[in-house]
Design a protein that fits this description.
Blueprint (H helix, E strand, L loop, with lengths): L3 H20 L15 H12 L11 H4 L48 H4 L2 H4 L9 H9 L4 H8 L8 H13 L6 H6 L8 H12 L16 E3 L14 H4 L7 E3 L21 H12 L6 H12 L9
Antiparallel strand pairs: 1-2
Pfam families: CCP_MauG
InterPro entries: Cyt_c-like_dom (IPR009056), Cyt_c-like_dom_sf (IPR036909), Cytochrome_c_Peroxidase/MauG (IPR051395), Di-haem_cyt_c_peroxidsae (IPR004852), MauG/Cytc_peroxidase (IPR026259)
GO molecular function, one term: peroxidase activity
């Protein structure tokens, strides 16, 4: 005999599913722009993404800071990354998964498309340290294994040029889409969440987390000021360093919460390793009410449902 509790749980799940569908939504199968991404372009982008010879001393590739194989969730889990010559990076590495859905890229929002962003890590002195785009192209041209990839990806114009490199890296990065248990729930599987996950989602919606972590990415496409001594490194001025506009001081990208339980440490400076402490800090800063410790625990149970089902880091 089916219990009354079961019917109550289903009713609770159904109501939450409708709210989550409206307030958050599910992740689309593919990002904008992917309609022009061919398998050949993605394969070329994957090769470029993994090629250590495209760094200044041939020891680092994009995949070094954004590991994606096996159970890895697309970031190195370091406070800040190390560059080709051991340089200390300035900001925490975000996950590469779902980056194709982002319209704000980098913590300071200095890029708004994968195409514009694609070459930056290669010529950043704190990352792969090449001197210029020309040096990058020269390295690719000097490797005969690339010729076949460019012919396959761009049969009408197989030139090894910066435009085709940008297109290919963007195509590959758009292919890195992670689907979660949460998406299954929003799409109608009411039985996939247990009671704690439902209660965690209810708290997430009720206390206003979606005011900042909005949309189906739960963040990732807006910036916000962190004007609190407990939340930022006062020596990092955020978007101000890009625009020189005093209004942009301490303005940083709001990160997506997808895969958040797999991608510690947190904040732009990687200063917090505990997700619960991160929630505590944000509760002090920008939520509707003070959360009890038990409510934070339930929030974390819910946040785990946002992880890619194939990843554990």
């Amino acid at each position: 005999m089916i219990s009354i509790q079961f019917f109550n749980d289903i009713a609770f799940a159904s109501e939450l599913q409708q709210r989550a569908k409206i307030q958050i939504g599910s992740l689309p199968n593919s990002p904008p722009g992917s309609e022009d991404d061919t398998e050949a372009k993605i394969k070329l982008g994957n090769k470029l993404f993994r090629d250590i010879n495209l760094s200044a001393n041939q020891i680092q590739a994009c995949v070094t800071c954004h590991p994606i194989d096996g159970r890895s969730a697309g970031m190195d889990r370091q406070t800040t990354p190390r560059g080709t010559f051991g340089q200390q990076g300035k900001r925490n590495t975000p996950t590469i998964f779902n980056v194709g859905f982002n319209s704000v890229l980098f913590w300071d929002g200095r890029r708004n498309s994968l195409y514009d962003q694609a070459i930056d890590p290669f010529i950043n002195p704190l990352e792969m340290s090449l001197s210029s785009e020309s040096e990058l192209i020269q390295k690719i041209q000097n490797d005969p294994s690339y010729s076949h990839y460019f012919v396959s990806a761009y049969p009408e114009n197989p030139n090894i040029n910066i435009h085709n490199v940008r297109l290919s890296l963007s195509a590959f990065e758009r292919s890195l889409v992670s689907k979660s248990k949460f998406d299954d729930f929003v799409m109608g599987n009411l039985l996939i969440f247990n009671r704690q996950e439902l209660e965690g989602l209810n708290i997430f919606l009720e206390v206003g987390c979606t005011n900042c972590h909005s949309g189906y990415l739960l963040g990732g496409n807006n910036l916000s000021k962190l004007q609190s001594a407990i939340l930022y490194n006062p020596n990092d001025f955020g978007r101000f360093e890009v625009t020189d506009d005093s209004n942009d001081r301490y303005l940083f990208k709001i990160p997506s919460l997808r895969n958040v339980t797999l991608t510690q440490p947190y904040f732009h400076d990687g200063s917090v390793t505990s997700l619960k402490e991160t929630i505590e800090r944000m509760n002090e800063y920008n939520l509707n009410r003070r959360l009890a410790s038990s409510e934070m625990d339930l929030l974390i149970v819910f946040l785990k449902t946002l992880s890619d089902k194939t990843k554990s880091n």
